Amino acid sequence: MGIESLFHLNRYAAGTKTDRHTHDYAELLYVSDGSLVQYVNDGVVHMMKGDVCFIDSGCVHWEEAGDDAFVIRLEITKEIIDAVVGNTMADRQAADYINELVKVLKNSGYIHFKFKNDYDNELKDMLTAMISECGVADMASAYICQGLMLRILWRLGTVYEYAQSRYIRKKINWLLHKEITDFIEDNMKDVTIDMLVERFGYQEDYFNRFLKAQTGMTFTEYLQDCRLNKSAILLKEDSMDVDEIIKEVGYRNKGYFYRIFTEKYNMTPAKFRKYIKEKELMV
User: Fold this and answer.
1) What φ, ψ does residue 60 adopt, rounded to 5°?
2) Which residues contact 204 (CB under 8 A, 6 or more apart)?
3) Rounded CA gap, 112 and 157, in Å?
4) Contacts of residue 63, Cβ cutoff 8 Å, sequence gap at least 6
5) Please, what is the angle between helix 139-159 and helix 121-136, to 10°?
6) What is the per-residue pLDDT for 280?
7) Per-residue pLDDT at 89 exceeds 60
8) With 60 as the cut, is the pLDDT of residue 233 above it?
């Protein structure tokens, strides 16, 4: 992944117009300050501070500064996308998302991302970090840039608004849902909502809203459901006693576990295990 000339930093005085041009690479433009009107093929994109426009390679475009503007441009070649997707640090869901994003870009020519609030300092911090790494330009920097690129594209898809495709929004929500729920299930013994905040970078209330929309349950409710489902599986396997299972799924209070297990399955853990054994003998 060549990173020496990924970035271009441009300042425009109000009213400045650029010539019509095209590139053999995709271009990601971030308006760090001011405003910009981007003309892409037959589309007109009004970009405010914090907005991003992702323009496909080969698209004729030009821009006009509405106010004095500072723009960060990031070149994204096919080789860069392939390197990010092929990075062993990138999980399958993230790689699938990037491939879907590229499909939308190819079909529409550009994607306009608008931040849901006023300004996204986190995205700017990621871009700034990439600029710093480009100044180093060694082997380690290339891998760091791949990770930052993945985080940038993932953040655009999950916390920005864009209207080009309901399908990809649904796809992204499903991928994010799977990544969050997989993390909860893999770490159910000691997972906390603070761990989700650290892992995914969103505020605490975001996870409750997102999980509620996707599963009908809050984080606490979803975690409890995962633990009870896991305990039922372990009871079926008959390789651990009930006290060991309680600890394995992350509970310390035996009385509390018995109460919520009985509420879900209408029988105690011991009766559940006996019921499963009897059912298997009848088959």
Assistant:
1) -75, 130
2) 193, 194, 196, 197
3) 11
4) 12, 17, 18, 36, 37, 38, 39
5) 160
6) 72
7) no
8) yes
